[in-house]
Design a protein that fits this description.
By secondary structure, this protein is an alpha/beta fold. Helix content is 38%, strand content 18%. A seven-stranded parallel β-sheet has the order 10-11-9-12-13-8-14, with helices on both faces. Helix 14 (393-400) links the parallel strand 12 and strand 13. It is globular, with a radius of gyration of 27 Å. Residues 614-627 have low confidence and may be disordered. It binds adenosine-5'-diphosphate (ADP) and magnesium ion. Adenosine-5'-diphosphate binds at residues 254, 256-257, 260, 283, 285-291, 413, 437, 439, 541, 543, 545, 572. Residues 289-290, 386, 541 line the site of magnesium ion.
Length: 680
Amino acid sequence: MMRLNDDITVIKGIGEKTAAPFRRAGVFCVYDLLTYFPSTYKTYPEVSATLTADEGAYAAVAAPIKNISEHYAGSRLLTTASLNLLGLYVNAVWFNQRYLKKTLKPGIRYVFFGKISYKGKIPEIVQPQIFSLGDYEKLKGKKLPVYSKVFGLTDKMIEKAVINVLSEIRLEEYVPDEFLEKYDLTGLDTAVRNIHFPESDELLAEARRRLVFDEFFNFLMTQRLSVTEETKVKDSLGPFDISVSSEIKSALPYKLTNGQESALNDLLTDFNGEYITQRLIQGDVGSGKTIVAFIAMAVMAKNGYTSAIMAPTEVLARQHYEKFSALCNQLGLGIPCILLTGHVKGKARAKALEDIASGVPSFVIGTHALFQEKVQFNNLGLVVTDEQHRFGVAQRNALAKKGENVFSVVMSATPIPRTLALILYQGMNISTITEKPSVRKPLKNAVIDPSMRRNAYALFVKEIRAGHQGIIICPLVEPSENVEGENVEEYYEKMKQTLPPDISVGKLYGPMPADEKEQVMEDFASGKTDLLISTTVIEVGVDVPNATVIMIEDAQKFGLAQLHQLRGRVGRGDAQAYCMFVDTSGSKNPSKRLEVLKKSNDGFYLANADLKMRGPGDAFGVRQSGDISFKLADIYNDNQLLKQAAECVENILKDDPDLMSSDVFKRFIEDSAERTYLNL
Ligand code: ADP
Ligand code: MG
């Protein structure tokens, strides 16, 4: 029997070698595969015998090949097949497909499916997929899943693996019938089948509703189960002498904002309170959460306790480490800073582990490497989790459990309206920093269309000449046959040609090897790279105050919260900063979302605006991310389901606080806890 937590290599057709790209995409076990939801769907249209499609539209044409030729354009191999469409000639063109000339036979009729372009003299189908007439007939009209890709992983591979799993497994229902009825939810097994291979739009919508409910349900249930046992812990760490707090504040080159002050006060009051607490500090990008954590950690140290701060990425951890070390030196605090990430190896690692265990009150800074079994903390008093939406609840608790009773602070830049935050962070106290340091000039925003790119590039050059740096965001890593949009690979090449040669350009994306990614970020942070072309991986918390201009390509494809996070990468220093959203939709009416972003730089205002603005219509676009780590759910759009899931969790726990009544349920919860660890 296949189990959800089994390694993906149990799946027919996935060996060690094919497993690699799956793992790079975050798919480690069967469950991960089933919840690797399609990012969109495509339907193959009727075959047409003439060319009726508009420029840029997709079409399928059936035609014989008249002749086929190859030539090089720069380093790219171009294969061109001339198709005879009832006397009208159309070219099908492919890039770097070495085998095509040998396999495609002139005279034979194939179906070509691809994007139509009228730019040259002869109309073109660009990079079309090729089918035999029979194969195409079978595909036509079906809604087929399109998954987000990493190198070496194709839709076909994922589809096959999912089909193989679904033929062997039947998912157990764990939500009691009464709730399924009450909220009108489809069964779990049906929902999983239909999200991958929907027979209709209605079934797809039902499947999605159910799985969104599940994501909320799991999140809330895991959290509730872990919170109830911890809220009752008496605070035996205090009383705390908090005088170092004012010492640090008076030594800083700036004054804390009111929001920073009150968040810090909240924390210090917690420390001297009756119970151990967990606190969420919400503060927009650039609101200065780090220094608040730093001061709280210093108070801990001066009272004999070690604190740990956990960042979601290696780069961010290192950046914190450097800042913390510098501050400790400047302020003469005499608190040792210890870095522990996956990349700290050998002797350095042994030394770090020894120092952590020594019991000398210190600052331990790292990634999730911090809560491995081997890390022995001594006198741990506070755990800070930065940019928490990247971590699961179980991961956070694992670190908190390293100490008997440990304060926990979670810092998030995801602006969540208070009503939703109260549901999502049950059992936590919430502090919100609403303002940004006033020294900063507000970001200047513009929504531009592609024809204005030239002016945009000129602004980049101007800023770089003035000693600043820039960032360009593309939605894709590399050219894709199914998804339209700018990609980092080609953009990088283009910018190297477009910009003066002394401007150094770098590129960054998720599927790069970790070392390389880190190097790229280091080079950018240190000012070695002037312009960075990146996907949204740059989103998380990285602080490069010297970056003053960002341009987001295909901006209409991103969610509002994500766009806001992205532009938060610039304008962190004193200089004027700029953000340009490139709207490539071709639509005359500018996207509402972009208009709102242009108007306001305030994340909390935006979150509320977003809640009002978005209808259920745009649930499937490029995923609305940045909001905790849900795959499908969107806390704004799906807030109704969030409330229902919360109500459901409460009702179940009211009758059955330990979930003893249902085996299925217990197993499901245990399994999901196990998975959180599997995937580290
Ligand atoms: P975030 O809340 O996004 O994590 P950071 O903590 O990285 O923001 O702070 C962003 C920048 O603002 C840092 O360079 C930091 O030194 C600076 N900063 C923080 N607080 C203040 C303040 N009160 N006045 C001026 N600059 C500040
Ligand atoms: Mg931060």
